[in-house]
């Protein structure tokens, strides 16, 4: 729904433009996105996050006891007007009790759909991916020493949870092998936006085991304006300032935002289609509502971050996915709020997100009026 890669990139960059503009004017904005550690207020001249050494988790850190972060962005933001916050290096990569299951799923997905989950379009994409790879294999053992280990003498990267050792000489410099290591150790998807003199920022490499209603390779080689073109309203909202805003992101900086959508027919995160719909020009839409199995409906959250890589100047667009049963949203008392957020969706965006097909049942359920309420 609201987070195809086009909508996700577009919405994040709208927020980025607003954030950078307010920063230049010296205005203060609240930074309230949930995170696993308190927000850090940085002075203007503080070193960028990627250049810092992350604080290590405690020696007795047990990922199996860490509950997933509960994100509810629809409570404070709706649709494109979603806030952006700074992200500390400690919070950039998150691990909780679902880590091992999701890593196994990612590994299986990459093995099953290698050409859908990984692609490199240009040498700039390969260089950006290699830079991100080096940053992450240095960062993970420092941040999570009970899970990861980097044996510099033997040039081996070790994951103690999966009991896997990787000889780095076999992985460095080979995009497909670097992808394999990242997929088998990190839950985030990565999209590399590389600077291009003529087209601004272009997606030149990707690692995407959990796509949300798009075929990942279809976006490869596209500039920002082309990636977000299919989403109603984004072109007018973003305009010509997107690439300028991306260029303004300081090297080594990390920022983040949250996006949300509804997902039907199960909790599987590998979705290459089914959530978007484009009526023909002039097409009159009647009653399109279809019965929905709401026990198989989930709120899908994307924690999206932008990290400016210091050497290649590429931007690593990182997405970590969370799913929550719709029943949980209702039980916690947020059913009306989510229903209001769905109802307030602009009409064209609502059609694009297939709202006419499912809103009747979902709205009744969330407000306690429908079957199973």
Explain this structure.
This protein is α+β, with helices and mostly antiparallel strands and 373 residues long. 32% of the residues lie in helices and 17% in strands. It is built from 13 helices and 10 strands. The strands form 2 sheets. It has a 7-stranded antiparallel beta sheet with strand order 1-8-9-10-6-7-2, with helices on both faces. Strand 4 and strand 5 (164-167) form a beta hairpin. Helix 1 (5-24) packs across helix 9 (242-248) and helix 5 packs parallel to helix 6 (175-183). The model is unreliable at 22-45 (pLDDT under 50).
The coarse overall form would be globular
Structural class of the secondary elements?
A: alpha+beta
Distance between the termini: 23 Å
Spatial order of the strands in the main sheet? 1-8-9-10-6-7-2
**Stretches with pLDDT under 50, minimum 5 residues:** 22-45
On the 0-100 scale, what is the average pLDDT? 81
Give helix and strand order, one letter per element, not per position. HEHHHEHEEEHEEHHHEEEHHHH
Per DSSP, the total helix count is 13
Task: Estimate percent helicity.
Answer: 25-40%
As an assembly, this protein is single chain
Report the strand count: 10
Tell me briefly what this model is.
With 373 residues, this protein is of the alpha+beta class. It has 13 helices and ten strands.
Key terms:
seven-stranded antiparallel β-sheet, 17% strand, three-stranded antiparallel β-sheet, alpha+beta, 373 residues, 32% helix
